[in-house]
Amino acid sequence: MISQHGQSKQILVGVADKSPLMRAALKQIFTEDDRFQIVSQDENSRDFLNTLEKVHMDVVVSGWIIPPGDARFILDRLKSRKHAPRVVVYTGFESETVPVQVMAHGGAAFVSKNEQPEYLLDTIAQVARGRMVFPYLDVSRLNANPLTTLTRRELEVLASLAAGHTNKQIAAEKGVSTNTVKYHIRNLFDKLGVNNRGQAIALYLKS
Fold first, then answer.
1. What span, in angstroms and rounded, lies between the C-alpha atoms of 10 and 56?
2. CA–CA separation, 105 vs 120, rounded Å?
3. Angle between the N-to-C axes of helices 197-206 and 152-162, in degrees from 0 to 180, rounded to the nearest 10
4. Are 107 and 78 in contact (CB under 8 A)?
5. Interatomic CA distance for residues 180 and 12, integer angstroms
6. How far apart are the C-alpha atoms of 7 and 207, rounded to whole Å?
7. pLDDT for 43-76, tens place per residue?
């Protein structure tokens, strides 16, 4: 990135990943490259969003599976924020639909953990310059994914189910009654064509 005075400046990077080992590894990688300055590390989506209220960053590197569900929790909430950081999803979770979902929800890049660290760093640098970096995507799969039929609230409830929360806990999180939570669960079961929580969660994590 280039400052107003024409001088190169460091790219401010935040990390959101549930694994302490991965957070430590990424910190080491960024520290060794003068292009970057790591400004935050969070273990879940809510902590990251709270950090963002206080810390400016250009790019956030997020895992895909991250409490309370996955990176869609972060992506969907950044859409309404002015000057939100661009999101690079960095994951070892193998599913051909994940990059499609990252793009559909407003992510700037998808990088597999099978790639070399240099590829991740170069991708972050490109994203900071305003580019998008994705593997080949079959965009027709966007409409084929049953999760696209869910409302935003149904997706939030499903993410909470995937995190192991009970109906009572979800109701407290959302500020609604347990009956309302049950209503959303019935609706998402119908839309996904599943009969129980286990099937719904499996489909959610696979997508």
1. 13
2. 20
3. 100
4. no
5. 41
6. 42
7. 999 999 999 999 999 999 999 988 877 898 899 9
CA atoms within 13 A on the CB side of 50: 7
Structure tokens belonging to residue 99? 């990059």
> In 3D, which of 1, 14, 21, 23 has the Cα closest to residue 59?
14
pLDDT confidence bin for 143, thresholds 50/70/90:
low
More confident site: 202 or 108: 108
Q: Residue 75: what pLDDT? A: 94
**111/127 Cα distance (integer angstroms):** 12
The answer, yes or no, to whether the previous bond of 99 is cis (omega within 30 of 0) is no
Q: Would you say 102 and 95 are in contact if contact means Cβ atoms under 8 Å apart? A: no
- How many residues in the chain? 207
Output the 3-class SS for 58-72. CEEEECCEECCEECH
Does the pLDDT value for residue 175 go beyond 60?
yes
Domains of the chain: 11-128 (3.40.50.2300), 145-206 (1.10.10.10)
Q: How far is CA 40 from the centre of its chain?
A: 16
Residues with Cβ within 8 Å of 199's Cβ and at least 6 positions away in sequence, in order, are 192
